[in-house]
Every structure is written in C-alpha cells, then in structure tokens.
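Researcher: Following up on the earlier apo prediction. This time include the ligand. It's adenosine-5'-triphosphate, with the SMILES given after the sequence.
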Amino acid sequence: MSARQEEAPAASRRQAPPMDLGALIADPATRIVVCCGAGGVGKTTSSAALALAAAEAGRTVVVLTIDPARRLAQSLGLVELDNEPRRVDVPGAPGELHAMMLDMKRTFDDIVSAHSTPERAQAILENPFYQALSSSFSGTQEYMAMEKLGQLRASDNWDLIIVDTPPSRSALDFLDAPNRMSRFLDGTMIRLLMAPSRAGFKFASAGFLLFSRIVSKILGGQLLRDISAFVAALDTMFGGFRERATATYELLRRPGTWFVVVAAPEPDALREASYFVDRLSAEGMPLAGLVVNRTHPPATTALSATRAEGAAEGVADGGGPSAALAAAALRVHAGRMQLAAREQHLADRFTSAHPDVAVRTVPAAAGDVHDLDGLRVMAEALTGPDADTPTGTPRTRVLPARRG
Ligand SMILES: Nc1ncnc2c1ncn2[C@@H]1O[C@H](COP(=O)(O)OP(=O)(O)OP(=O)(O)O)[C@@H](O)[C@H]1O
Ligand SMILES: [Mg+2]
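Model: Understood. Below is the ligand-bound prediction.
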C-alpha cells in the first residue's frame, strides 16, 4: 500500500463513539452478551474477562466458553468437559462467576434423549451417521452453542449469560449454522432418502430409484442405510430441531441481549467485523460495539515517529555505546508509533464505514491471558472508564486524535 493510500480519508476523522461495557454488564436488564468475531481474535478471552468483571460488579454470571485454551480453562477450574457450569472462586467478588465449556456431542446426545423414547434414543445414538454428525459436521458446534444458550436461559439460574462463539472462519457462521443445520436435518435430500420407509414406496419412482442409486454410489450403501435409519428415528424430532433453532434465534433478538464484536487490528478481522455489524443491524440484533483487541499503543505519544527517527540518527552520530543504546530505544519507539498509526488507521476506516458503532481498544498483554489476574487486566481495559487512562489516550483509540 502506498503512503498516500495509508492516509486516512477526511471522513474517517470522525470519532468513534465510546463503548461502555462496564455499565452494560452491570445493568440488570442485560441478560445475554454474545462475543463474536473472526477466528483467533480473542472471543474466548474477552468472554471470560467480561464474565469476571460482571461477577465483580455483583452479577450472578455464567460464561459459556468454546474450546478455551488449556491454561485458561484450568484457571477457570474447567479441567474436564462436563457440560455443566462450575463455580469459579473469585475472592472478594460480590457476585458469582460460573464457567463451562461446551461439549458439543453431549449437548446433542441430551437433546436426542430428551425428545425420544429410550429405545429410539439408543438407536439414534448408536447410529454411525449420527455419531459423525454430532461430532464433526460443520455447524454442529454453532448449533449446539445456541442450544446450550437456550438451556442456560431457560434454567434461570443466572442473571447474566456470556456466550463465547465457536472458532469459525467467519463470524457469520454463528448466526447461519443453526438454520443451515436444521435445513439439512429437514432437507429435501434426507426426506427423499427416507421416503421408501415413510410413505410406503410412494416416491419409489424410477427417478427416485435412480437418484438413490447415484447417492448410494457416492456415499456408499452402508452410509445411506445409516442416514435413512437415522432420519427415520429422528423423524419425530424434526419439528423440534427447527423450532428450537428458531426459538434461540429469537432469543438473540430480545431486549436484554447484546452482541460484542471482537476483532484484531488487522484488515481481515476488521472486514469480517464489518460484515457482521451489517448483518446484526439487518437482523435487528443489538450491537454493543466493536472491541479492537491486541492493539499496540506506544508508552508515550509525545514524540512522533519521524522525530524519533531523526533524533535516533542525531544521537547515533555522537558515537559511543550509550548513544547506540539511546538510538536503538528511539528506533523502537518510532516502530511502535508506526504500528500504532497503522492500527489507528484501520480502526478509523471501520469507523468511517460505521460511524455509529461504539469502539473500545484493548492493548495486547505481554503474554497470553490465561489466569484470573490476566483476565482482570483485560476486564479493566474492556470495562474501565473511557477517558481515564495512564497515557491520556481515550480507550476508543490507539493514538490520540490529531487536532484540527
Ligand atoms: N489482549 C490480549 N493480549 C494478549 N494476548 C491475548 C489478548 N487477547 C487474547 N489473547 C491471546 O490470544 C490467543 C487467542 O485468544 P482467544 O482464544 O480468546 O481467541 P478466540 O477468538 O477465542 O479464538 P478461536 O477463534 O480459536 O476460538 C490466546 O492465547 C489468548 O491468551
Ligand atoms: Mg475461542
């Protein structure tokens, strides 16, 4: 990209509105917060940090995590997948923090058991096609995350549920997968496949026989039999699946639900965040704002990159080891200022496309965030006051706004 293109367009001088996640999670009217975003941007960590902040603000909160990093899981007391929330000890917190890891297969198995007779449930659970679907079908994790959210909400044990979303490539998968999955379970192909057993060979026309022979060739006869048996057993649950997907989807639209979109200060993640923000607004789903996670604000902004470079050259000319050291430090600062300027530029570009979306930046910690102390630092960055920062740069930004 040329230096010219790097320059922010005039419209982007618009300031992003600040995001008050602190007030949002403390508000008793807030019942569900969903953290979405592209893969690897910090959804799981942000969810856990927000949950910790909520417990410290007095809420009884449960965080539903999905595939948390091992050390983070351990520090939340999640040593094994048990598909139920566990209380996390947070000394001194007026509220309660509970955490769980989603067990996708167990969640699916539980739905099957809850909606069929024991014999039918057994037949489904033992079916190889079901086993593949419940543990690896793309979209199953998203569907089951929504399912679990619905269950947590229905149990009414928590006054706030914070939901992490699966590590999909696209943030939109979380919204799309449940529908795609129920369409699949209710799909034409599957209905055709099971037609002979259901409608007394009504559909067993030459066309269907040809179709099923082709499918059988592609998928293999055994798999086809597995699918047919699975679908026959699942037949009574069809309505169930679709209704549940729809009901949970509606839950996401209800007042009291908020989405937090997480992105890294990188073009791809912010582009993804942009699509997602558009989609939420098209669906009428409330957006709390955008978290730009792992930014690199410089320790001071008093010295510009250009001046630091110039000073480094001047100092280096003086010669001697301490001059070399000072020059190196100035160059590090110059590099840091340039990085921060790039990140700010990307954030500005987002804001110029979405001027109403509130923004909060979260600086990169020195290492991974894997314990309560690390989460607390992140929670402070997420929920602390916008203007009251050590560097004086508001938390909407990586660098202070240029005057004029
Ligand atoms: N502000 C931060 N500073 C330093 N490290 C961070 C920060 N935020 C997240 N991380 C680290 O980045 C890694 C990825 O974070 P996380 O697992 O939360 O991302 P994710 O969006 O949930 O990823 P996935 O899409 O794979 O689920 C983790 O190792 C986490 O500790
Ligand atoms: Mg994650």
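Model: The chain is about 55% helix and 10% strand.
Researcher: Noted. I'll compare it with the apo version next.
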